[in-house]
Amino acid sequence: MDNSLTYHTFLDFPDHSFFSMGIIVPQKIYTALVPFQAQPSIAFVENGHMGVRLENALNNHFEALEDPASTPLVTDKSRVMYRVLWPGYEPWSDSSHIVDNSGLPISRARLAFSVARIVQKFMSDVRYVGSSELRPDWWVENVRYDALYLVELRHVSTGSWQPVLRLAF
Questions:
Q1: Three-class secondary structure of residue 4 per DSSP
Q2: For the whole model, what pTM was predicted?
Q3: Which of 99, 103, 120, 165 has the most CB atoms less than 10 A away?
Q4: How far apart are CA 122 and CA 148, in angstroms?
C-alpha cells in the first residue's frame, strides 16, 4: 500500500478480479500521530476470493476461510484498537482482546469474528447518527451488514488496526 494515499481503494490490491463482486468501502486511512513500525496487513480469503463475509465470521462459519487456525502476528499486547473511518461519519474506534484465555494469540478465524463484532457495533452505534456523506449509498442505515466482507486488517498505528471492508453487490 502506498502511504501517500488517503483512502483504501481497489487500486491497493494486485488482483482486481474480486471486484466484480463488490467495491471497497472508501474509508479514509487512519493517520498515526507518532512514527511506528508497520506490520504486514492480514488478508482474509474465503472460497478462494478476497474477503470473509462478516455475517459468516459473526456466526462462526469458517468452513470456507483459508487458514482459519493460523495465528497472525498482530501485536505483543493483549488488546488492540480497531478504527473505522466510514465515509460521512466521525472516526470511530473500539478495542478487543487478541489473546485467548491462556494468553496465546487468537486464530485468524477468531480475529475475523472479533472484527465482525466490532463492525456490527460500529453500525449499531452510528445507525441513527446523521451522515455528512452526500452519497446515500454509503449511509450506514442503507448498508446491509450481510453484504459486508472483511478483506484485510491494516496496521495503522501502534496497537491500532483498520479493517478494509468490501461491500458486495
A1: coil
A2: 0.88
A3: 165
A4: 13
Give the residue extent of every domain in the chain. 10-168
Digit-coded pLDDT (tens) for 17-68 = 555 578 889 999 999 989 999 999 999 999 988 899 999 999 999 999 999 9
Residue among 82, 89, 47, 72 nearest 157 (CA): 82
CA distance 98 to 95: 9
The three grid cell numbers given for residue 47, joined into one nine-digit string? 472460497
Neighbours of 19 (CB within 10 A): 14
Tell me the three state secondary structure of residue 22.
Answer: strand
Note whether 35 and 156 are within 8 A (CB).
no
Q: Taking a C-beta distance cutoff of 8 angstroms, is the pair 27, 164 a contact? A: yes
**Which amino acid type is present at position 148?**
L
- Which of 97, 126, 91 shows the shortest CA–CA distance to 111? 97
Other Cβ atoms closer than 10 A to 99: 17
119-141 burial, b at 16+ Cβ within 10 Å, e below that, comes to: bbebbeebeeeebeeeeeebbbe
